[in-house]
C-alpha cells in the first residue's frame, strides 16, 4: 500500500498573502482542516484551522468588533503558517505515513515528488487504507487465530484455507510477548464452519469468529 493510492490529488492551495479570514472561509466551505500555502507556485508551508483560530481575538478581548475585524483583515497566513512542513513522496508506504503522523502528532502529510506538491494524505485516508486492507468493506468471515510464532506457521494456515477453496481478503499479524502470534484472516465466505473444524482438528486455536 502506497500513499499515491490513497492521497487526495490536486489539493486546494492558497497564496502566502491570503487573509486569515479568507483562509478560514475556504476551509469551512470546502470542509477541510488544512491548506498548503504556496508562493509563486512554490510550496512554502501549511496552515491548519487550529492555527487560524488561535490567532483570532478572544471573546474576552477589550478590542471593539471593528478593531478586531481591522486586525484580522490585515493579517495573512504568512504570519501564522508552519514553514518547512513534514512531507513524504508518493512512493511512501501507508504504514510509514501513519508512523510519521503519530511521531509528529499531525493530522496530515503533504505529498511532494521532485519538489512539486502532488497531493495530501490525511488520517482519514490512512484509516480508509487500513479498512480496505483488512477487507472490512466487503462481506465475509473474520477469524482470529492464536499460533506459535514460528517459521511457516502462517503458510500452514493459508494452505488449509486453500484446501477449503476459500479466498483470503485480508491478513494481519500481531506478535505477542508470550511467544504466540495472533493472525487475523478475512475470508470471502458466508460460512466457515468446515474450516473451523479442520483448524481445530489440526491444533490451531481459533479465538474469534464473526
UniProtKB/TrEMBL annotation:
Keyword match Acyltransferase: no
Keywords: CBS domain, Repeat
Pfam families in alphabetical order: ACT, CBS
Superkingdom field: Bacteria
Span of domain CBS: 7-62, 81-136
Domain ACT: 142-210
SMART domains linked to this entry: CBS (SM00116)
CDD domains recorded: CBS_pair_AcuB_like (cd04584), CBS_pair_SF (cd02205)
Protein name: Acetoin utilization protein AcuB
Classification lineage: Bacteria, Bacillati, Bacillota, Clostridia, Eubacteriales
Amino acid at each position: 500500500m502506497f500513499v499515491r493510492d490513497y492521497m487526495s490529488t490536486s489539493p486546494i492551495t492558497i497564496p502566502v498573502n491570503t487573509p486569515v479570514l479568507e483562509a478560514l472561509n475556504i476551509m469551512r466551505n470546502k470542509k477541510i482542516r488544512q491548506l498548503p500555502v504556496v508562493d509563486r507556485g512554490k510550496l512554502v508551508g501549511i496552515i491548519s484551522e487550529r492555527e487560524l483560530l488561535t490567532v483570532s481575538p478572544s471573546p474576552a478581548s477589550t478590542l471593539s468588533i471593528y478593531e478586531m475585524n481591522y486586525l484580522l483583515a490585515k493579517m495573512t497566513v504568512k504570519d501564522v503558517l508552519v514553514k518547512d512542513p513534514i512531507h513524504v513522496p508518493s512512493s511512501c508506504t501507508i504504514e510509514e505515513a501513519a508512523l510519521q503522523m503519530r511521531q509528529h502528532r499531525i493530522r496530515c502529510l503533504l505529498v511532494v515528488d521532485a519538489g512539486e506538491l502532488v497531493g495530501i494524505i490525511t488520517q482519514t485516508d490512512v484509516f480508509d487504507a487500513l479498512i480496505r486492507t483488512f477487507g472490512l468493506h466487503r462481506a465475509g468471515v473474520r477469524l482470529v487465530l492464536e499460533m506459535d510464532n514460528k517459521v511457516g506457521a502462517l503458510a500452514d494456515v493459508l494452505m488449509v484455507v486453500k484446501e477449503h477453496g476459500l479466498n483470503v481478503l485480508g491478513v494481519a499479524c500481531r506478535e505477542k510477548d508470550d511467544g504466540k502470534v495472533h493472525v487475523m484472516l478475512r475470508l470471502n465466505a458466508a460460512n466457515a464452519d468446515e474450516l473451523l473444524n479442520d483448524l481445530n482438528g489440526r491444533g490451531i486455536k481459533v479465538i474469534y469468529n464473526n
